[in-house]
Amino acid sequence: MIIDFHTHAFPDVVAEKAIPKLSGIGGITPFGDGTLSSLLSRMDEWRVDRAVILNIATNPKQQTNVNNFAIEVNSSQDRLYALGSLNPYSENIKEEARRLADAGIRGVKIHPDYMGVLVDDPKFDAVYEACIDNGLFVVTHSGWDFISPDLIHCTPERILNVLTRYPELKFVAAHMGACRLWDDVERLLIGKNLWIETSLAPLMELDPVKCARMINNHDPEKILFGSDFPWYSMKLEREYVDLLGLSCELTRKIYSENAIKLLGEK
Question: CB of 149 within 8 A of CB of 181?
Fold first, then answer.
């Protein structure tokens, strides 16, 4: 089984505007149009069994609608598992975390760059505490992002600050711990109490030798497969992972077993 732990999809009316806008800002040609049907079609084409959709409430006004979409997807799609999102500026973080948990959502996505808050800023404390209280894990964009190239809101150093303050928090750092900051990831985060996932490693030219070393030195139960579709190809991401020379047991964990444990069976 293959589970892509890092994908994006939107309601059709939102995807129609969001994908061209983001594609233009980042100078990236997407591999899909951002709709659920596009995601499912590519999953069939590239033999991916299930996918996790990471939703982002970039401002407090979006939070309810974003989470409504996540709950709807999660209840209506057998192959898709949507996460919610909590915005640090929201006035009802605790209530929304409880609503997500009651609806069967197991985690939330944050994006410090889009939210304009450093990942270890006290403004995020209410989010982390609500997630701990409600058994939700946190997935964060980490490292460089085209939306904020001159100020990286989630560095390995700042992630380590969060882990130190909240050791009980289940924390997933996307893009192999921090996009383009892999020397610092290897120095500060590998072996620590967090999950990392593979998305964009080949696109951002992470040396496969370094990637394999990072994976082999990390907790084998805390590595996940992700692509960041539609911004990258699930097929190309799989080819990259397959060429890392990992053991069969570790490869199985990365492709599905670790994700199943973190998500729980749907």
Answer: no
Determine the Cα–Cα distance for residues 100 and 203; give it in Å rounded to an integer: 33
Q: Give me the helices (H) in the chain, please.
A: 12-26, 36-45, 63-76, 93-102, 112-115, 125-133, 156-165, 182-188, 208-217, 234-242, 248-252, 258-263
Sheet holding 195-197, edge to edge: 107-110, 137-140, 171-173, 195-197, 223-224
Q: Is the pTM of this model over 0.90?
A: yes
Give residues with Cβ within 8 angstroms of 75, minimum separation 6: 103, 104
| pLDDT (tens digit per residue) in 87-137 | 999 999 999 999 999 999 999 999 999 999 999 999 999 999 999 999 999
Q: In what order do the strands lie in the sheet with 50-53?
A: 3-7, 50-53, 80-82
Q: Which two tokens stand for residue 105?
A: 């959502």
CB atoms within 10 A of CB 58: 16
How many Å apart are CA 37 and CA 114, to the nearest integer?
A: 26
- Rounded CA separation 231/217 (Å): 28
Residue 138 is which amino acid? V
Quick check: 233 and 206 in contact, CB under 8 A?
no
- CB of 74 closer than 8 Å to CB of 81: yes
Q: Is 18 helix (H, G, I), strand (E, B) or coil?
A: helix
